[in-house]
């Protein structure tokens, strides 16, 4: 029976053959480091949990199925997944990476991958043509779409076409939309990466990461890498992500519905200079998003009139925590300048539009009226501050 997306969030490929059938509805946590061999040269299919563990395997099957891919590999964090993926490259290889990436990815590329001899050319791929930067050594194009935090949208099909023509791999970090809203492999990408910490886990309680692909050569390389470097996801954490994915669709829908209402609130606020959300019809990437995704997600960035106002908002929200991360049930307010993008050189950060007046909201599944009330009082806290200053001046 071919299962639809919502059902696959619960059952994955519905393959319970590898586990004892006790009738357990929840997939068991195989909290074991090693497995007994039936005899010399014989295996149950599981030997040692660094190589594979039934709970991790079940999770990997679910995610591969949601991304319409042959295989996924679950790692201990998104960064562990991207770090492991970089091992498919050799010293001397070059990658073309989008300029506006998750700060941790930029830090990895500049400080670790670079040291290992991999070179990165960073350009704004929502505007510039990568073909001008391809050399004989270029092996891959690496993108996120929408980008973090500026919400630039990149045409995945167009990038895939350029990648194929030039014999490059297209790697897409699909964290912001999750497979519920976007499937890059269907659009021609070769590899998808995820921070499973975000929408997939969805509860701000577990770190995880994924590499997903249908390319047999990469599957073989990644199988070798995950067992060799040892950063595969632990059984209990795998189970938490399995549980999180059960409600992926419901959470994504509710969070997006809330996001649209918060975008309206921000657009009507005179102290907000610009709202970055790809679901706004005037947004540069709106038409591409409509073509390649099934939704716009629940990440919003916005620029307020001054950095003082941004800082006042950050310390004045009562319900919404000022915290790093995204994609969870709880709405979080982030300050990219000092948090997610603190390690990105200032000139690049500013060139990407991440000024110290930009705030990022990851909208959760709370009552949206409560969220708007909280934001509204945080904006007003600034007016009160303003008045206090005026009175002092007088
Ligand atoms: C958070 C994040 C990562 C890193 O994932 P971790 O699970 O925090 O290691 C990578 N890419 C994007 C887009 C992210 O938001």
TrEMBL record:
Gene3D superfamilies, sorted: Aspartate Aminotransferase, domain 1, Type I PLP-dependent aspartate aminotransferase-like (Major domain)
Superkingdom of origin organism: Bacteria
NADP recorded as keyword: no
Alphabetically ordered keywords of this record: Pyridoxal phosphate
Transmembrane spans: none
CDD domains in the record: CGS_like
One Pfam match: Cys_Met_Meta_PP
Modification N6-(pyridoxal phosphate)lysine, positions: 198
Cofactor(s) in the UniProt record: pyridoxal 5'-phosphate
GO biological process: methionine biosynthetic process; transsulfuration
Recorded GO MF terms: carbon-sulfur lyase activity; pyridoxal phosphate binding
Record-level GO cellular component terms: cytoplasm
Family recorded in the similarity comment: Belongs to the trans-sulfuration enzymes family.
Protein name from the UniProt record: Cystathionine gamma-synthase
Organism annotation: Lachnospira multipara
């Amino acid at each position: 029976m071919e299962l639809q997306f919502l059902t696959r969030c619960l059952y994955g490929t519905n393959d319970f053959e590898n586990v004892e059938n006790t009738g357990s509805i929840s997939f068991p946590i195989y909290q074991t480091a090693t497995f007994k061999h039936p005899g010399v040269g014989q295996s149950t299919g599981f030997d040692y949990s660094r190589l594979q563990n039934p709970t991790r395997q079940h999770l990997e099957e679910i995610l591969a199925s949601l991304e319409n891919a042959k295989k996924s590999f679950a790692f201990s964090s998104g960064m562990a997944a991207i770090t492991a993926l970089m091992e498919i490259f050799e010293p001397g290889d070059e990658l073309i990476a989008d300029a506006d990436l998750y700060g941790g990815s930029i830090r990895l590329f500049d400080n670790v991958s670079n040291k290992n001899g991999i070179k990165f050319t960073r350009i704004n791929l929502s505007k510039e043509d990568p073909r001008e930067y391809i050399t004989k050594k270029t092996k891959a194009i690496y993108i996120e779409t929408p980008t973090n935090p500026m919400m630039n949208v990149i045409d995945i099909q167009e990038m895939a076409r350029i990648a194929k023509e030039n014999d490059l791999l297209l790697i897409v970090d699909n964290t912001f939309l999750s497979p519920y809203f976007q499937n890059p492999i269907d659009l021609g990408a070769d590899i998808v990466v995820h921070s499973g910490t975000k929408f997939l886990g969805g509860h701000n309680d577990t770190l995880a990461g994924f590499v997903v692909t249908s390319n047999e050569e990469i599957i073989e390389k990644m199988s070798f890498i995950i067992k060799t470097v040892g950063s595969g996801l632990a059984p209990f954490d795998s189970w938490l992500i399995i549980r999180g994915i059960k409600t992926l669709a419901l959470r994504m829908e509710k969070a997006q519905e809330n996001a649209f209402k918060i975008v309206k609130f921000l657009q009507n606020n005179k102290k907000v200079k610009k709202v970055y959300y790809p679901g706004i019809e005037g947004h540069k990437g709106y038409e591409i998003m409509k073509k390649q995704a099934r939704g716009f997600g629940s990440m919003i960035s916005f620029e307020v009139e001054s950095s003082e106002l941004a800082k006042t908002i950050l310390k004045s929200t009562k319900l919404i925590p000022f915290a790093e991360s995204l994609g969870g049930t709880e709405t979080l307010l982030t300050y990219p300048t000092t948090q997610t993008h603190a390690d990105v050189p200032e000139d690049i950060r500013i060139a990407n539009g991440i000024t110290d007046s930009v705030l990022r909201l990851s909208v959760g599944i709370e009552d949206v009226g409560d969220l708007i009330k909280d934001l509204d009082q945080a904006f007003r806290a600034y007016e009160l501050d303003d008045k206090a200053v005026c009175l002092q001046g007088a």
